[in-house]
Amino acid sequence: MAGDPVAEKAAASVLKRAVELDTARRFTESLVCYQEGLQLLMEALKANGQDENRRVELRKRAESYMSRAEFLKKHIENEKEAGKYHEKIEIGANSIGHSYQKVLGRFLDEYVTKVEIEDPYVRSTHQVYNLLRLSELLVGSCPNLKSIFLLTGRESGNQQDMLDELKQSLAKHKVVLNVEYSNTLHDREIRLDNGWIIKIGRGLDYFRPPEGKFSLGYCDYDLRPCHATTVDIFHSSKVRSVSNK
Amino acid sequence: MAGDPVAEKAAASVLKRAVELDTARRFTESLVCYQEGLQLLMEALKANGQDENRRVELRKRAESYMSRAEFLKKHIENEKEAGKYHEKIEIGANSIGHSYQKVLGRFLDEYVTKVEIEDPYVRSTHQVYNLLRLSELLVGSCPNLKSIFLLTGRESGNQQDMLDELKQSLAKHKVVLNVEYSNTLHDREIRLDNGWIIKIGRGLDYFRPPEGKFSLGYCDYDLRPCHATTVDIFHSSKVRSVSNK
């Protein structure tokens, strides 16, 4: 077998993305890419048939990325502990690849037991579906999730019925959904009790309508074009206690 | 910082699953779990604050899993080359965690350019949605995908319109969808031109109807309970050439 050029190519492309994200100071995403790229590079190194010079070169490259990844990890930890971590992501108009999994997924873990969502627009059908999708992601990614708190605007219509159905469904997964209404609310943020706070400029409703009901992107939000919005990510128990009502 | 007991616990649980899958001869899935578990174990090892005895123990454990993973990898390669790879997965009635991503995802890669689907039941609305979801997964996971071929049963009604919309949408992603109809078809299989063949007993339609339109599992198929079915996985260019029409 003659090496694994595909693993090498894949590693190169993921690591290139890691460096781009690193330069853009999108550190948590960058770290995920460094780790993934390094794993692919290890695969390439394990493959047979590489000549020794090439192996030495790959190993050197791996070492430099590894030290950058370790630096980033420490940097994130330090900023978190100092309560001043901040990362900014610009979602471009009509860009794709921004499902809730991509935006939030890397912050969801065993430490999350409570999620607080403030979003004035969880009112119409497609907006309740946004909350359903987010809930599915939370249930699938946070094994110790106990409760979700939603603060949103009140709408006449069937908002209440839809949210009640979601509430009953979450209860079957042992997660309590509490909903409160405020029509003066304008903040949009998601607070996880592992310390991460994600502020999406437009709230959950940043996807464009689907092109059609049987078109790619109708089910998979990673293929759905987005409206332009900014995501700010913070980590701080201090920020959280201030912004709590 | 006192070690990382969470990474260690997570590693233990993923590696336990790897061994279970290994015992059940579900080798491709087992390999994914070994690799993931080993990465978590490395995380645990990297964390500070572990005493030296514990580190030696963890390192020993890692080595034994690593050698099993490498054995499996070689075993799968050998069986593939000999044209006799076969793996069987039983999906239990009402069990969850069997989205197309989970069943097929690990076989999708850069080598897939053509996907052939034989399934008599891509007819009604929810069945065309199954195909849409599978198409979204293929487009997202196979960067070199050029064409999808579907052989299914013909239905009066709007089957043709739905498939036409999907066809146009795939064309925008530079993927050609060709559909042929046969009402004598009874086989259900998905053939990838990287050599993998996945036969799902019930075809794509193995999910139970959702509990409600705003219930968990409506959007995320990993949370949707399934009907009982068997998945057989083969790898062989020989099998493929025989089963081609």
Automatic annotation (TrEMBL), chains A, B:
Coiled coil: none annotated. Pfam families: MIT, MIT_C. InterPro entries: MIT_dom, MIT_dom_sf, MIT_domain_contain_protein1, MITD1_C, MITD1_C_sf. Gene3D superfamilies: MITD, C-terminal phospholipase D-like domain, Phosphotransferase system, lactose/cellobiose-type IIA subunit. Signal peptide: none annotated. This is Uncharacterized protein. It comes from Daphnia magna. The lineage of its organism: Eukaryota, Metazoa, Ecdysozoa, Arthropoda, Crustacea.
